[in-house]
TrEMBL record, chain A:
Underlying gene: PPH3
Record bears the keyword Hydrolase: yes
Domain of life of the organism encoding this protein: Eukaryota
EC assignment: 3.1.3.16
Name recorded for this polypeptide: Phosphoprotein phosphatase PP4 catalytic subunit
Assigned keywords, A-Z: Hydrolase
TrEMBL record, chain B:
UniProt source species: Zalaria obscura
Protein EC: 2.1.1.233
UniProt keyword annotations, A-Z: Methyltransferase, Transferase
Protein name: Carboxy methyl transferase for protein phosphatase 2A
Length: 421, 393
């Protein structure tokens, strides 16, 4: 067993590793991350996760529900630290996994991966408490500066191959369409039971009248008909993953690539906006109540997706009680992966699975390693760019609740959530 | 350095004892442990509630230290380091204090020459009397458990700032009397009564056969009763009975009377359910929460308590964000507040703020409508948002 595997085992038991190992780990991680661009290329299949916030036991639950690294290819959209009691163990475990399986896990930066925010929201104090000095906090902050700002997922299938999962209850089963073709969205609970399933709207010639289609009505010549050629053209537009959202200073993904990211998150500017902004039901841009970043409306998202040939933006950053929330005709989704956030909010969490393009019958092999990535990339270059909007990928959401506090024999400090007394 | 994630160690202190007590009872005769008596368990439960005051005073200190609130007296009730709370807690403390100050000040500024009275239930280490020491013609009463009043009186005695502030309201220093056990304080302006509120309930609910006499309390004066997270810890029937007795015998049935409560609401959504179970695990039971679960239930409760001339209620979220007729906090002030700290948790803030309310109700009695004049212009009636809330039930 290598030192790294030992560290992973120790961290999985929710025990911190010695300071000297942290230093070494952070050094290796930086060497790896410096090679990544500001926008990391990721090939489907991939499981996209939102905020973790030091809720270590819930991160273990996430791996139970979504599969272990390296079997599952993961993309974490930042906010690993702060608020929860185990920011240190959570972040170091993810970092160990990154160093051990660099092609099977992608970490991008959230607004909490910052020196200033971590001194307010707990990570700094946690490091001080667990190591007696701020060294480990400093090592981690140096890694934060090297984390990518976004990721671009390509090669995701437009349709979900339905799982063999059963329905969670008869009611939801009865409301399902009779055919299982072209499932666009599927929602599963943590026991792998289907909660709901939505087919993709079909061209009128093939329509199932009265089917409970989601309210996705793209302009003519787009959406379902856009990729034409029936089952073989199964390639969706790319998915941009970023922690917060868009910036008025960024109109193309290439502009993100040009940023100098290796610094503390600035108080304003494009890099700050990518980590802080939120979508909102407004036109154009608005001021953010968070004091950093902006609010942006549907018109901004649709234009950005069109210009950049995206079918979807996946982002995190905002607590959503149902774990995920699609907005603006399914052009942007918020994924939130911290159940019962701060041990207080009572929300469920979700992860988003995008499966691989249907070239091997839609089954996404969860194999170790890197096989097939290069070919997929070439596929991207040939991608039909004539459609106004690329069809969205099939999306499988797995919704899960907080892990029981004393689960799996790991130490668990009884959380004390703040109220007004 | 204080860790902000574990801010409530003080309120946990009583918990161990409670658990010991329950274990003793649950496995009575099992092992050498002495089973605790019912009284001991009740005392342990009471202690937890008494210690919620530590939580409140820490929160207030944190908000003062960061500039949310201006309160030079808060420090006197904090031992050791200044606690640090999360931005959403600081903001909530600010809104709570500011909203109640507005209602109290609207009352106090009516006819400054007319005498008035304030009774603060479960006042703990509250500083409102000291912050309003320059308002004339007010008699202030605070009621709390003896253990809390003792702490407060000792803080006043050892802190010249508090003592001088108090004495500046008195005709002569000799006017101030402190009981031998140091649990009671009496004067013409400020009184601290060591009293378990439950003795105010009717005898069949465990109260005293006649309501206890409180020194310097004038049953004929226009009286404002404050309950900031106090009555909600008692059983609903006890709370109702206390309010009845206050409104019919502690205060004369014809005197103008008003009540302001600050309490949690909305127990039925997932945040509310989590709140109930989180606090229960600390031994804190919000006993009236389900009965007064909505703004409308709060208004109705005030009306049924005989405060028939007007009732209002708003949650903390709408108090913070309200505009126009609904404005409690000016846009400039909101900008100032939002500039004090980065508040990243906007969704969490709204969630938390929706689960607390300020409710107020009054009767004008035989008076000249002092409360109607004070509060008639404060928007507090039913809103469209409440209709949506009701549909959830």
């Amino acid at each position: 067993m290598s030192d790294l595997d030992k560290a992973i085992a120790q961290l999985r038991a929710c025990r911190p590793i010695p300071e000297i190992q942290v230093r070494e780990l952070c050094y290796k991680a930086r060497e790896l991350l410096i090679e990544e661009g500001n926008v990391v290329g990721v090939n489907a299949p991939v499981t996209i996760c939102g905020d973790i916030h030091g809720q270590f036991h819930d991160l273990m639950e996430l791996f139970r529900v979504g599969g272990e690294v390296p079997d599952t290819n993961y993309l974490f959209m930042g906010d690993f630290v702060d608020r929860g009691f185990y920011s240190l163990e959570s972040f170091l475990l993810l970092l160990c996994l990154k160093v051990r399986y660099p092609d099977r896990i992608t970490l991008i930066r959230g607004n909490h991966e910052s020196r200033q925010i971590t001194t307010v929201y707990g990570f700094y104090d946690e490091c001080l408490r667990k190591y007696g000095s701020a060294n480990v906090w400093r090592y981690c902050c140096e890694v934060f500066d090297y984390l990518a700002l976004g990721a671009l997922v390509t090669g995701a299938a437009t349709d979900l191959e339905p799982t063999e999962a059963s329905f969670a209850n008869a009611e939801s089963e009865a409301s399902q369409p009779s055919t299982l073709d072209d499932v666009e969205i599927e929602i599963l609970n943590s026991n792998n039971q289907i909660l709901n399933r939505f087919p993709r709207p079909k061209p009128s010639s093939d329509s199932e009248v009265g089917s409970p289609a989601p309210n996705r009505t793209g302009p003519a010549g787009t959406g379902a008909s856009g990729s034409s050629g029936g089952s073989s053209a199964n390639r969706s537009g790319a998915v941009l993953c970023v922690h917060g959202g868009l910036s008025p200073l960024i109109d193309s993904i290439d502009k993100i690539r040009l940023l100098d990211r290796k610094q503390e998150v600035p108080h304003e500017g494009a890099m700050c906006d990518l980590l802080w902004s939120d979508p909102d039901e407004i036109d154009g841009w608005g001021l953010s109540p968070r004091g950093a970043g902006f609010l942006f409306g549907a018109d901004i998202v649709k234009r950005f997706n069109y210009i950049n040939d995206l079918s979807l933006i996946a982002r995190a950053h905002q607590l959503v009680m149902e774990g995920f929330k699609e907005m603006f005709d399914n052009t942007i989704v918020t994924v939130w992966s911290a159940p019962n956030y701060c041990y207080r909010c009572g929300n469920v969490a979700a992860i988003l699975e995008l499966s691989e393009d249907g070239s091997n019958a839609g089954y996404a092999p969860r194999s170790n390693g890197d096989v097939g990535r290069r070919q997929e990339r070439q596929g991207l270059a040939e991608r039909d760019a004539t459609g106004e909007h690329a069809p969205g990928p099939g999306r499988r959401y797995r919704v899960f609740e907080a892990a029981p506090q004393d689960s799996r024999g790991m130490p668990a400090k009884k959380p004390v959530a703040d109220y007004f007394l | 350095m204080a860790a902000p994630q574990i801010p409530n160690l003080n309120t946990l202190r009583g918990r161990t004892r409670l658990r010991g007590g329950l274990r003793g009872r649950g496995r009575g005769g099992f092992g050498p442990e002495d089973p605790q008596s019912e009284e001991d368990q009740d005392a342990a439960r009471d202690k937890i509630i008494q210690q919620t005051d530590n939580d409140a005073s820490s929160s207030r200190m944190s908000a003062v230290a960061l500039g949310y609130l201006d309160d030079e007296y808060a420090r006197a009730f904090i031992q050791g380091q200044i606690p640090r709370r999360y931005p959403i807690i600081n903001r909530g403390t600010y809104v709570r204090t500011t909203a109640i100050d507005r209602l109290v000040d609207n009352f106090l500024c009516q006819e400054p020459s007319a005498r008035k009275q304030i009774i603060s239930l479960g006042a703990g280490s509250d500083t409102r009397f000291f912050r309003r020491k320059d308002v004339k013609n007010v008699v202030y009463h605070e009621i709390d458990f003896p253990s809390n009043t003792e702490q407060k009186i000792s803080a006043i005695e050892r802190t010249p700032l508090l003592l001088n502030a108090l004495q500046s309201t008195l005709p002569s220093p000799a006017d101030l009397q402190v009981s031998a056990e140091k649990t009671a304080l009496a004067s013409t302006t400020y009184n601290i009564h060591p009293l378990d509120l439950r003795t105010l309930a009717s005898p069949e609910l465990g109260g005293a056969s006649s309501p206890p006499q409180l020194p310097n309390l004038d049953p004929t004066l226009p009286t404002l009763v404050l309950s900031e997270c106090c009555l909600c810890y008692l059983p609903p029937e006890v709370t109702t009975s206390i309010l009845q007795r206050v409104s019919n015998s502690v205060i004369s049935p014809t005197a103008p009377l008003a009540l302001i409560v600050y309490e949690p609401i909305r127990p039925y959504d997932s945040f509310g359910k989590t709140m109930i179970s989180n606090l229960a695990s600390r031994g804190i039971h919000l006993q009236t929460l389900k009965k007064y679960s909505s703004l409308d239930a709060q208004r109705l409760r005030l009306k049924h308590a005989g405060l028939v001339d007007g009732q209002g209620a708003r949650d903390i979220e709408s108090i913070y964000y309200g505009e126009g007729e609904e404005e409690w906090i000016t846009p400039e002030e909101r900008r100032r507040i939002e500039g004090l700290e980065w508040l990243d948790e906007v969704e969490e803030w709204r969630l938390l703020a929706r689960h607390y309310c300020v409710a107020w109700g009054w009767r004008d009695g035989d008076g000249d409508g002092v409360f109607s004049k004070a509060w008639g212009g404060v928007a507090g009636s039913r809103t469209a948002a409440e209709n949506a809330d009701d549909e959830m039930l």
